[in-house]
Amino acid sequence: MEGSNKAAMEGIRKAARAYFDNQSDRKKKNARKAFKAMDKDGDGQISLPEYEEYLKKKKANDFVHTSIFRALDKNANESLDFGEAIVLFYLMQSGRALICKSCNIFLAGAYFSCSQCFFNDSVSTYEICCACYGGDNFTHHDDAVFCDHYTLLRQSRSAVQAAPPMRKRDKALQILKKGLLAASVSTSVLECISNGDDDDDSSKFSCSIM
Ligand SMILES: [Zn+2]
Ligand SMILES: [Zn+2]
User: Fold this and answer.
1) Are 109 and 7 in contact (CB under 8 A)?
2) How far is the CA of 100 from the centre of ligand 1 (A)?
3) Taking Cα atoms as reference points, which of 111, 200, 100 lies closest to residue 152?
4) Contact 161, 196 (CB under 8 A)
5) What is the pLDDT of residues 98-157, one digit of tens each?
6) What's the confidence (pLDDT) of residue 150?
7) How many CA atoms lie within 13 A of 97 on its CB side?
8) Contacts for 91 with CB less than 8 Å, ≥ 6 apart
9) How far is the CA of 72 from the centre of ligand 1 (A)?
10) Would strands 146-148 and 111-114 be described as parallel, antiparallel, or unpaired?
11) Which of 37, 40, 129, 151 has its CB surrounded by the most CB atoms within 10 Å?
């Protein structure tokens, strides 16, 4: 795993741990149960085949990816202990299974997304890692405008604000919700967008940030 991605993964781990610690006892128990269900041979470790089998059964096929398994496997012993598995549960809850469409690594941190595909309801989103974007190492439609995920989020807010009266705004929000979920931005972020204050004109609908 590349250095910056490793650091980003560390951030995800911290968030997952905090999230888990804050859960009710019942939910913590459920996490233990899920771990046991995954651990078919009961050795306290989730192997790659056990991982894949569980996710396929859960219809979480996006997560069936060795790059995600490797990112989760902090001590690189080719299996996940409970502490490593709760990071998976966290990623599953937030629907965060983003893989670089070019080099196939798990996108733990900053990444770029094609803005046209992001806002188009009928196509899937297209994400690439910073190295692939910076190195022009990808093939996508020619007129694609790429934004990093922070800029995209900012834009999304502007798009909702730009949509006049309530009904249209609600519609814009619905479309946005789909796109953002696909790009794994949590719905709490959406709430921030929809409740955002309208007087802020610093957010122009544009991709140029430099
Ligand atoms: Zn890449
Ligand atoms: Zn595109």
Assistant:
1) yes
2) 5
3) 111
4) yes
5) 999 999 999 998 999 999 998 888 889 999 999 999 999 999 999 999 999 888 888 877
6) 87
7) 16
8) 12, 16, 63, 68, 97
9) 18
10) antiparallel
11) 129
Q: Residue 131 Cα, ligand 1 centroid: separation in angstroms?
A: 6
* 108 CA from centroid of ligand 2 (Å): 21
CA 50 – ligand 2 centroid, Å: 35
Ligand nearest to the CA of 147: 2
Tokens describing residue 203: 């957010």
Tell how far the Cα of 207 is from the centroid of ligand 2, in angstroms. Answer: 14
How far is the centre of ligand 2, averaged over its atoms, from the C-alpha of 117 (Å)?
4
The contacts of residue 84 (CB under 8 Å, 6+ apart) are: 46, 72, 73, 74, 75
CA-closest candidate to residue 64, choices 92, 101, 94, 33: 92
Distance 141 CA to ligand 2 centre (A): 6
**Rounded to 5, what percent of the chain is helix, strand, coil?**
55, 10, 40
DSSP secondary structure letters along 132-171: HHHTT-----TT--EEEHHHHHHHHHHHHHHS-THHHHHH
In this predicted structure, the answer to whether residue 38 has a pLDDT above a threshold of 60 is yes
**In angstroms, how far apart are the furthest CA atoms of the chain?**
58
Q: How far is the CA of 134 from the centre of ligand 1 (A)?
A: 10
What's the residue count for the chain?
A: 210
In the chain, the N- to C-terminal Cα span, in Å, equals: 29
Domains (range + CATH), the chain: 3-93 (1.10.238.10), 111-194 (no CATH)
